[in-house]
Write a structure and sequence with these properties.
Layout (H helix, E strand, L loop, with lengths): L9 H19 L5 E3 L7 H10 L3 E3 L19 E3 L4 E3 L5 E2 L12
Parallel strand pairs: 1-2
Antiparallel strand pairs: 3-4, 4-5
């Protein structure tokens, strides 16, 4: 019902998709119930927009970057300390939101 040319860059495709959905809703009054797409559309931002702002059920693979293969810790290796608002690595060091230079932290 709509088309928009975009570059083969994920964010450009996501932006075009959002605009096409909005145009179809505005022009034709058609409200899709679901959207099927590839993993390029599986960002948290896009999924939240579909579900919370447009009430569209996504059938999209989600980006999962929890498994690490680059020598850094996986998400499961860190423990969150609510009282201190920090993460604790397996070596016992604290990672706080205000500490931004994580590259030099050695656990």
């Amino acid at each position: 019902m709509d088309v928009e040319a975009s570059t083969a860059v994920g964010q450009a495709e996501v932006t075009a998709c959002k605009r096409m959905i909005a145009r179809v809703q505005d022009r034709f009054g058609v409200w899709p119930e679901r959207l099927a797409a590839d993993i390029a559309f599986g960002s948290a931002e896009m999924l939240a927009w579909l579900v919370h702002e447009r009430d569209i059920q996504p059938h999209i693979p989600v980006f999962d970057k929890s498994a690490r293969r680059d020598g850094t810790f996986e998400r499961d290796a860190l423990t969150y300390d609510h009282g201190d608002d920090s993460y604790v690595c397996p070596g016992g060091k604290r990672l706080r939101p205000r500490n931004r230079n994580f590259a030099t932290l050695v656990c």
